[in-house]
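Data availability (excerpt). The following record was deposited with the supplementary files.
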Amino acid sequence: MRRQYLVAVTMLLPTVSLANGAMGLGLERWDLRFWWAYVVLMVAAEAWLIGRWVGFSWEQSLLRSVLANLLTGGTCGVGMIAPFLHYTFAGTPQDPNPLLDSFKVLLYFSIPSAAIETWFWERRDAPRSGKFWRVVAVHLLMVPVGMAILLIPPRPYLGLERFSQSARHRTFMRDLSQYVLREDHLPKGDTLKSLATEVSPSRSPVSLYIPEFTRFATGEDWQHPEYTLNKAALGRKLNHELEDDQWVWLLRSTDGIGEIRVSLRSGQVQKGGVGSEPQ
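Predicted structure:
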């Protein structure tokens, strides 16, 4: 009865376990359906290739694998290195290299995960020689396996897309506000790329495009503009003598829901719904 209970609990825990130190990043980067498939496979692979090799029973191996991954995931995913989870390992937050970024995430977190998890495979009557390197080898083996699983859907980087789009919005709004106040007029670029380059010359002009990354994407594909330009507003000068704010929309979302507006009196930049009053 005790063994049956142990097996039942152990089989349920992988659904909430964190596969390795990259778990926090996994929740943000990939399609969660396939990430959880990788989690379950990782837990099972460690139990089989490490636990059974050390000499634990299958039930003990599975339980130790779950607990080990819970620890490393909790430590790396939501613990002491949580501030680094919003870091892009290849490219920039606005214009990442999804394929290389994913590979680096799995690779970079495999070694510290292995180092932490080795403690769970200690056994008094088992030889220690080569145990750490076997744990490392299993983690490295799961890097290409994990990539193969995570790249199954045609758009696997759903979380990374959201992160990238948020970074684009945030930096463009800040750069546009600084540009208008500095130049005392609205930008003059008559295409999305030229306008983004004019506003943020030191950045890749991806800010006004929607990130939609396919399996082997290495950067922006420039296929999904997020806004249309109001060419009548391009280059308009500010007039600080106006009694009230006079708002003009510069960019309108292609779905017709939102727009980015600039006050011709103060140069203030606002984002809101089409036709609504600026907040």
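Summary of structural features: The radius of gyration is 25 Å.
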